[in-house]
Specification:
The protein has one domain. It is of the alpha+beta class and 91 residues long.
């Protein structure tokens, strides 16, 4: 059974715009249309109209949670790695 924490990560990932995420000095682009243009953009410049006001957007929620999600996933991978190593050493 999947933990509640992993369920949260899966929900955030599923809610985000499908496709690549690209970032640069000016902003972040989500997804890709057939012509190569992004589906959605967020700019870092406050004067830009596409700047979000909060993190209710699913793509921003994914980014905001990324550091904690990666830490959680690394902890799980490391625990699994320790478990496999321990099992291997006992054979």
């Amino acid at each position: 059974m999947r933990s509640a924490r992993l369920n949260e990560i899966h929900k955030r990932l599923a809610a985000a715009t499908p496709g690549p995420v690209r970032g640069g000095a000016r902003g972040i682009a989500f997804g890709e249309r057939p012509d190569g243009s992004p589906v959605k953009r967020f700019w870092f410049d406050e004067a830009t109209p596409h700047r979000p006001k909060d993190c209710s957007d699913p793509d921003l929620a994914l980014i905001v949670a990324a550091k904690a999600d990666i830490a959680c996933l690394l902890e799980l991978v490391e625990a699994q790695d320790d478990h496999v190593r321990e099992a291997w050493d006992h054979h």
